[in-house]
Amino acid sequence: MTTTILSSADLDGQLLLPDDPGYDHARRVWNAMVDRRPELIVRCASVGDVRVAVRAARELGLEVGVRCGGHSVLGLSAPDGGMMIDLTPLAAVRVDPERRRAWVQGGALLGALDLAAQEHGLATTAGNVSHTGVGGLTLGGGMGWLARQHGLACDNVVSFEMVTANGDLVHASADQNPELYWGLRGGGGNFGIVTEFEFALHPVGTRALSVEVDFPVEGAAGVLTGWRDLNAAAPRQATFAATLIDGIVTVGFVWVGDPEAGRLHARELQGLGRPAEERIAELSYVELQRRDDTVEGHAVRRYWKGHYFRELPDAAFDALLEHHPSVAASLQAYGGAIADVPDEDTAFSHRDTSFEYVAATRWTDPAEDAERIERARTSAARLAPFASGAYVNVLTDEGAAGIRAAYPQAKLARLTALKDRWDPGNVFHLNQNIPPTP
Ligand SMILES: Cc1cc2nc3c(=O)[nH]c(=O)nc-3n(C[C@H](O)[C@H](O)[C@H](O)COP(=O)(O)OP(=O)(O)OC[C@H]3O[C@@H](n4cnc5c(N)ncnc54)[C@H](O)[C@@H]3O)c2cc1C
């Protein structure tokens, strides 16, 4: 495979052009709404490949998309007519159980990190679906079932190895390029391509408990406010979650640790009303991390909108329940170790969030696109008056307004200065973009 500037011979990995076998598979991302055709896909098998790809894209004047798990809802890793820098072959995870560290390559999926660490009873915070990419998730923050005990995924990164917009390789840690280290913990893929994350691991054991109690939507306001109030006193092993879909309100929590201790808290939830059904399941941590893999699977059309809430007053639950079209609304609790980190320590913001809300919809018929998107927007708009910001990894098509919701003004200024320093030409703009100073 050859272009005038780049050929497979220059790479440890592979160059894919539109007629090549494997091209169609490689361009596909999680959201089936995304159907873009990059001019080139560089499947990078080494850090050297990433450097070569970045330099070639600039020489060829091609727009760059960076792909790890391919889970950006907008499919930002797949540029139409540009170069997809596909990191998926760079997926190795190495664990040192003595030092409690994991070195994770930039294209790895969360499942690979969980599996390698759990062999030693260790883990670090990762998201709730194992086929999500470590890359995009961690660079935007990284919320998961361990975050209330051990902080966000980004809080556990000890160092980054990054290829810059010039194709150079740099390190970022508390000692080396500390300002870049600050920005990579929450600032997304704006500054370069991370080829390796060094994570701190924690001895979390291998056991977990999931508690879900269903109530009919009629009369669910009291259930939800009770669930909220129980959350305020919940131990850090518990991450409270709730969903509203198809006339059923489900409240519960995920517990990472000794399941017996978790079961004690389940009773409090059962007492919130007259449950229609309940599911209490002990599972291994790895099973927990894969539990939603199928329902959150590929090849389905998707759209969502989210908010952060500092507080959830009763009126917010009324707004949630008053109008419940066929989008799934979910709430997940923050707090604990997330809020222990001073807000100014990382680019990730809104550490005083108590709950994250997402209105999500999935469908298969393209004829429903406009209606589905509108429903998710309408649902989220009803909760907007209670919002206190947004999570950058849950933003979709909000544009600059979304960036302003994700970062307070002072942080945005600091992130813009970092962008000016590391990517003044905005080579990396297919992301939730922080543009350089014009
Ligand atoms: C099914 C599903 C479940 C999710 N669950 C959670 C969850 O539990 N917790 C949570 O916090 N978020 C969750 N998210 C949101 C998720 O964090 C974002 O969608 C994230 O962008 C996905 O990263 P990715 O690597 O899979 O996606 P990609 O589309 O591959 O990447 C997204 C963007 O990240 C950047 N990027 C990715 N890798 C690198 C890299 N190595 N170097 C530089 N830039 C890079 C690029 O800018 C790229 O455009 C979930 C998303 C989905 C679809």
Key phrases:
7-stranded antiparallel β-sheet, 3 domains, FAD-linked_Oxase-like_C, Uridine Diphospho-n-acetylenolpyruvylglucosamine Reductase, domain 3, 438 residues, 5-stranded antiparallel β-sheet, flavoprotein, 29% helix, Uridine Diphospho-n-acetylenolpyruvylglucosamine Reductase, domain 2, Vanillyl-alcohol Oxidase, Chain A, domain 3, FAD-bd_PCMH_sub1, binds flavin-adenine dinucleotide, 14 helices, alpha+beta
General description of the model:
With 438 residues, this protein is an alpha+beta fold. It has 14 helices and 18 strands. It is globular. The strands form four sheets. A seven-stranded antiparallel β-sheet has the order 15-12-14-13-17-18-16. Helix content is 29%, strand content 24%. It has three domains: 10-86, Uridine Diphospho-n-acetylenolpyruvylglucosamine Reductase, domain 2, CATH 3.30.43.10; 93-204 and 409-422, Uridine Diphospho-n-acetylenolpyruvylglucosamine Reductase, domain 3 (2-Layer Sandwich); 207-396, Vanillyl-alcohol Oxidase, Chain A, domain 3. It has helices at 23-27, 47-60, 110-118, 134-140, 147-150, 178-184, 220-232, 259-270, 285-290, 314-322, 337-340, 369-383, 400-406, 409-422; strands at residues 14-16, 40-43, 64-67, 83-86, 93-96, 101-105, 122-123, 157-163, 169-173, 193-200, 202-203, 207-216, 238-245, 248-256, 277-284, 301-309, 328-333, 355-363. A hairpin with a 5-residue loop joins β8 (157-163) and β9. α7 crosses α10 (314-322). Bound molecules: flavin-adenine dinucleotide. The site of flavin-adenine dinucleotide has 34 residues, from β3, α4 and β10.
